[in-house]
Every structure is written in C-alpha cells, then in structure tokens.
Amino acid sequence: MRPFDLLTLMQFCWAFLAIIGFSLRSNLRGSRVLFTGLGGGLCWASYLIILFYSKSMLLSVFLSIIFVCIYSEVVARLLDTPVSVFVICVIIPLVPGRSLYYAMQAYISGNSSLASRLIFDVLMISGTISIAIAMVASATQLVMKIKAPHLTRR
Amino acid sequence: MAEVSIKQCSKLALETGRILLESGAATNRVELMMQKVCSGLGYPECESFVTPTGIFLSISAAGDDLSTSIKRIGHRRIDLGKITDISKVVNCLHDASCNPLPEGKSKSAYLRDELRRIDEQKPYPMWLTNICGAGTSGFFCLLFGGSWSEFGVALIVGFLVATSLKYISRLPVNNFLLNALAAALIVLISKTIDIWVPGIRLDFIIIGGIMILVPGLQIVNAIRDTMSGDLVAGTARGMEAIIVTIGIVAGSGAMLKLWELWS
C-alpha cells in the first residue's frame, strides 16, 4: 500500500476510534479523550508511513513512538494533565498483541522455530517501545530543567 | 504557618496517595503529589517512599514532632480520570497564582472535600464502558486487517468480554487469573460464534479481543518509574506486565487447545 492514500486515512480513523474506546474504558473525561484518540491515530498512521519508506519494523516503531511521546508531552502541558495519562493511551496500537497471539498459536501447533522468532519479535518491539518512551521522558526532563524550571511539576 | 496538626496532614497525604496509587499512577508521581500536599499544608519537611503495593510517609515539623505512617494498597485498577483530577487539585493547592479556595474555607478542608468528591465520583455507566470495550475490540480487528463481517463479530466478542470482565473482577481473583479467564473467554466466544457464522477468520477477532487486555499501563509505568530512579517500583511494574502477558497467553492458548481436543 502507498502512504497518504485512503487506506491510511481509514486505518487512522480506526486507531482513533479504538483508542477513544480504550480511554473511555479507563474513565478519562472531557476533551482529553479526543486528544488521546488523535494521538493513537497518529501513532498508527506514522508507523505505517515510516514503515512504507524505511521497510524496517523496529525503526518505524521507534520513530513513531518518539513522535507520539513528544505529542503527548506537548498536549499534556496544554491540557494540564499528567503526561503518563496520554502516553499510556497512545502507545496501545503498537503494543505487540498480534505477534504475541501468533507466537502462542505457533507454540500450540508445535512449530517452535516460528514461535521463537515471533516471541523474539514481541520482545524486540516491546524493548523498542520502552527505549523510545524512556528517551523522550529523559530528554523532556532535561529540557524542562534548563528552559523552564517552573514547569517541571508536570 | 501550619494550619492543621501533623496527624491530620499525614492522613490527608496518605489519602491522596491511596487514591492515586489505586488508580494506577506512577510511583514517582505519587511521591511528588504527597510531598506537595504536605508542603501545601505547611510541613515542607517530608519523606515518602512508595512502592506499587504500599506507601510509607514520614512528616517532621519544627521541634521534635515526627509522624510516620504506612498504608497498604490492596487492589489496583486503571482510572486515568482520578489521576488527572487529583493532580489538578494538588497543583492548585500548591500554586499561589491559582486560587480556587472558596471564601472562609481552609486549605485542608478544601483538600478533604475534593478528595472525598473524587473518591466517590461515579465512573461512566456500565453500558457505555461495555460499548467502548466492544468498539475497541472491533476497531483493532479492522486495524489488523479484518473485514466488515469480522468487525461485527469482534464487536459482539468485545461487548461480551467487557461485560463479563466487570463480573469476574468482583470475584477475589488475582491479576494473572483475571487476564487468563478473560483471554480464555475471548477464544471461547469467538469459537462458538464461528460455528454459526461461516467464513470469518478468527485470528483477527481474537487479536482484537486481546488488545483490550494488553498491559499498556504497566509497561509505561515500569519504564517511567525506572527512568526516574525508582528501581523497586520499576521492577515490580515490569514483573506485573510480564505476569499479565503470560496470563493472556496461557488463557487463550489453553482454551484453543481445549477446543481442539473437544471438537
């Protein structure tokens, strides 16, 4: 598929709606629900677009998580909300539930080489997500300490 | 300038910490918020140590007055609304520029009333959260490549699982068993629907259901705690994420195998 076509837009909408459902289930209120949905959609759409150009899954996961983490740091400060509230919701589309399921299925059908590869995928993706979140969180702390000490309370 | 006794202050701070931790806030955030409550009420010298299952708080005042308390936290859920509300109240308490105090009301009374209001705040009605569970499951099914008929089935599965999760979580079961049961239920319901509705690919439906359960909150909290130096809390949260994941895999895998044996 090509980036920026109708399919990407539809995928964006689905991720948007799914994350809105998720954040309502975790009892988030007000306009923040819309912004978490937007973040989730951006997360998935940027993943697809970067995947198209780079052909590397881990790189696209890394870059899109960094992108949405910066997005949530900005939006959280605008809406006077803890940052982790946004980060928790927006990374959900990239959490490797799919690879996990296929790995489990492969183990059950006795195909352990495929299963090990998929488990490795799961570990690599979750590790990449962790590194990306950690990098953005540390960088923000640093920037905020230098630039605006009075805003570090978020 | 302290307007409340040291015991009352530690009571209020512990209450703040309890609500935050039970709603699933990161531990460094809980520590920060409790310190803000203490310094806002006039006790700037306070030390706190928070783990995901308990709070230790020690407040000292001028003279030899010292109060240490421990609070054990039993069950934890995800409630991002409460985290947001409490952060707002506490930040307001601390900030001189923001002045929400009504006339003739002290800071401690304001904090106590707000905490009670937030603690007793009604969550969204059950039908709405169940529909949201259905939507999440259905749209993740579409996202991972399902067709429209699979979307419909995933909606039903998501609705039923979200409804039964409410009832399962009322039982005294631990986190592992809760997720294992829910994942098994996802597989069971989709396999049952598969009998009557031919031509659907179950993979996408089950993945859509599993995405409701994935431990996103625990992963994020584990990383943020570890990065802020709370190694104990970070490791504990990471372990929780692993346990939840293993629960999901074990539950769905066991159910798939059972179904295979039975049919």
Percent of residues in β-strands of chain A: under 5%
Fraction of residues of chain A in helices?
over 70%
Kindly state the number of beta strands of chain A: 0
What is the average per-residue confidence, as pLDDT of chain B, rounded to a whole number? 86
Count up the domains of chain B: 2
**Structure summary, number of beta strands of chain B:** 3
* Largest sheet report of chain A: none
- Subunit arrangement of the protein: heterodimer
Our count of domains of chain A comes out at 1
Low-confidence stretches of chain B: none
Report the largest inter-chain contact: A-B, 48 and 58 residues
Query: Roughly what is the average pLDDT of chain A, rounded to an integer?
Result: 88
* Distance linking N and C termini of chain A: 40 Å
Q: Please trace the helix and strand order of chain B, writing H or E for each element.
A: HHEEEHHHHHHHH
Instruction: Enumerate the spans of chain A where pLDDT stays under 50 for 5 or more consecutive residues.
Output: none
Rough outline of chain B? elongated
User: Approximately how much helix is present in the residues of chain B?
Assistant: 55-70%
Pattern of helices and strands of chain A:
HHHHHH
Spatial extent as radius of gyration of chain A: 17 Å
Question: Quick one: biggest sheet of chain B?
Answer: 3 strands, antiparallel
